[in-house]
UniProtKB/TrEMBL annotation:
A Pfam family per the record: F-box-like
Annotated stretches, region: Disordered: 122-148
Alphabetized InterPro entries for the sequence: AUF1-like, F-box-like_dom_sf, F-box_dom
Name of the protein in question: F-box domain-containing protein
Biased composition (Low complexity): 123-136
Amino acid sequence: MAVIPRSDPPSRIHPEPQQTLGIDHFDHLPDSILLLVFNKISDVKSLGRCCVVSRRFHSLVTQVENVLIRVDCVISDDDNSSLSSIKSRSSASGPFSSIFRLVVGGIVKPLQALGQFLGARRSCGSSSSSSLSISGDEGGEIEQGGVTHHSPTQVLKNFEEIRYLRIELPSGELGIDEGVLLKWRAEFGSTLDHCVILGASSVIQPNPMRVSQAIVTTTVASDDNGSIPESFYTNGGLKLRVVWTISSLIAASARHYLLQPIIAEHKTLRSLVLSDSDGQGVLCMNRDQLEELRVKPLSASSASKRTLVPALNMRLWYAPTLELPDGTVLKGATLVAIRPSESKKEASDVSWVSSAAFEEPYEAAVKMLVKRKTYCLEMNSF
């Protein structure tokens, strides 16, 4: 029988064993790079989730310098036992109500490691209970439907190196009518440093077909020479602006009072901003102002939980109608610049007013209003 020679079977190429299988590439990144990533994340809830990934992440998250806290709901100190005391929107609370304690929510109970990182204390009640409860006076937690909420003070407890802190409320404290514009920006040290308030009785949104015409209109000098019309004093216009001013100052001083424990505990802070999702009000404190509060304690109002507002000097600018470069029209546009009467800064210097960082088009409104006639007012401490 003939033997048919067979060729050697074709050689097969086998991949080399994957040497990197099971290796965590994050282990090769230095801590400084991971900290850059965590600082970019900044959101405290996302950082809390990062901290349960590994022990290394847990230890690095506590060293984050840039932190953002978004507050989910607000709890009234006057009625802690009532479910109706939860205010997810500020429309139900007026500016003259008592100070509200902020609560950061969204921490689900099964993530116990996350809860421990945030410094939360476990509630004695059952997590399945539908009732709402608050445990503790400072930095307490709230349970509802298996979700635990924590105050900003409690959330920040284990952060050691915070330098830049931003806290965002779910909405502004001032309930205003639809169509009314009211914005404020305040800076505090141990007391009010200055405050800028921009308001308008109504806002007419721009018509794209009229934008070019609006730009021309705003460059032409007004024929009212910037004077306030007599009707402003007789139809309640001035009284309304006074209410706006007092309400904004109360909201700002209440926020300032709330920040005391955070500022005292975190000595590394260089900048603190407390704003709201509506863009209604912004409270800012820089490094020098934070240090001033630590050295010189604030004076609290005897009437409510807020910082005492000192005697004030105010400058007011008013325009019955103000047409902005983008075509937006403000009816009854009003700008109020406020400083304490005892301020050592030159009272006639209003250059700082134009630098108030309102978003456009309202920054343009501020710059236009300060060119008009100035009216001076005074207000006693309250």
